[in-house]
């Protein structure tokens, strides 16, 4: 992997750009989160998605019921067994999302310059003149001149399927708007987004809590994507709620930044959350177009320095209906990788898109190419400088392991870990080679029965750039005698060889605990 690394600053022959890339076991270091839905819920399609590079499956509850998602999840489990590829589960909450309810599901045609009324009276039929919404406080939140955007679930930004409205007057609970563009709204549910308008809806709704405490608990979700996170307190409340739900105290919370309010409290939210999702669809409506890139670069930098995974959404919208992304989209994916994104989240593209497997494959290939020109040297120096001195014990070990691996041109870094923290810290320094994190299960008891932990930790590294987990045999503790460590190491090396990332005569950097000491060692493989 390291040998193909090149820098754009170095003189390269243009012809060399066209040379085909070598296929590798790991499609890319950057991870791909796929949203499963109507077009991607059969065992066959999910298996295709996993082989193409999806490592986290997202279940969006603003769409369909728990029973539907349960069937999809059963198919995911079957696909994981079939392909022998690990996959984590992310539950995406509805949160403070305003929706237009179209019970009849008839297409609604809206003409530019006409007026339409938004009403909280859910009993009304949706029509070209009247749109019922699920929130009764809109009339108090908006004023004349405000903009409102309505589009089908995960709007693609196409102006024929989504509509801009301008508030012209407020009549009691109703909001009268002027339509700014002609559009046809098709489907049963549309998302309504008020640009820079504060909405008094809870971040974790009662419906969300019910879904998490039933579906979430039954399926031991790895990640909770907290929609419309606006304050650090939102994350604290969600964490407190999860802590009372059995195994879900281990679930990681990813704060989804979707509006100006979340952006204003970004630093405090980042401190509380386990990771960040930049919801560029909604943010793109709240922010002036010329500021979108700036927010992305600043937010990704902050996440990288904090060593917390950052996920970017809405990258290849046009692949919902087409086999090939636009030039702008292809460049956008690469820039997200160069900016430091850990994972790319696909929404409509896999949920209702016509080409879910091809989309994942295409995004993976673009990520892989971008990683080859990622300036690791500069990133490493920047991170070390940001962390400052004195470094913590673990941080020092992690950065040393990465530095050693780069100096000796190691083909892989193997890290023994039980909590996953050491492996995540190594990945924080963005080594150019994959990090195999060998998760050593820990035996724990609740006085009634014994159980092993480790599966959560392994799956949670599936969203971190460059981290590839494997679960070790629980009979090998993380801090143990050299003999048992050697046998786990042999299993890890065999796994690497089978995966094609380690060959004979390769050098491998190993990071592990021996007694109370942490050790970084370099080994050279024989024939």
Could you tell me the CATH topology label of the largest domain. TIM Barrel
CATH class of the largest domain, named Alpha Beta
Radius of gyration from CA coordinates: 24 Å
Number of helices: 18
Instruction: Summarize the amount of helix as a percent range.
Output: 25-40%
Q: Specify the CATH architecture of the largest domain.
A: Alpha-Beta Barrel
Strand arrangement within the widest β-sheet reads 1-2-3-13-14-15-16-17
Shape: globular
Structural class: alpha/beta
What portion of residues belong to β-strands? 15-25%
| The CATH homology group name of the largest domain | Phosphoenolpyruvate-binding domains
Low-confidence runs: none
For the secondary structure, the number of strands is 24
Overall pLDDT, averaged?
88
Q: Profile the largest sheet.
A: 8 strands, parallel, barrel
The end-to-end distance, rounded to whole angstroms, is 20 Å
Overall tally of domains: 3
Structure explained in plain terms:
There is one protein chain. By secondary structure, the chain is of the alpha/beta class. It has three domains: 243 residues, TIM Barrel (Alpha-Beta Barrel); 98 residues, M1 Pyruvate Kinase, Domain 3 (Beta Barrel); 150 residues, 3-Layer(aba) Sandwich (Pyruvate Kinase, Chain: A, domain 1), CATH 3.40.1380. It is 36% helix and 24% strand. The chain has 18 helices and 24 strands. Strands 1-2-3-13-14-15-16-17 form an eight-stranded parallel barrel, surrounded by seven helices. The longest helix is centred in the first third of the chain and has 18 residues. The radius of gyration is 24 Å and the shape is globular. 45% of the residues are buried. The mean pLDDT is 88. Pathway: Carbohydrate degradation; glycolysis; pyruvate from D-glyceraldehyde 3-phosphate: step 5/5. Belongs to the pyruvate kinase family.
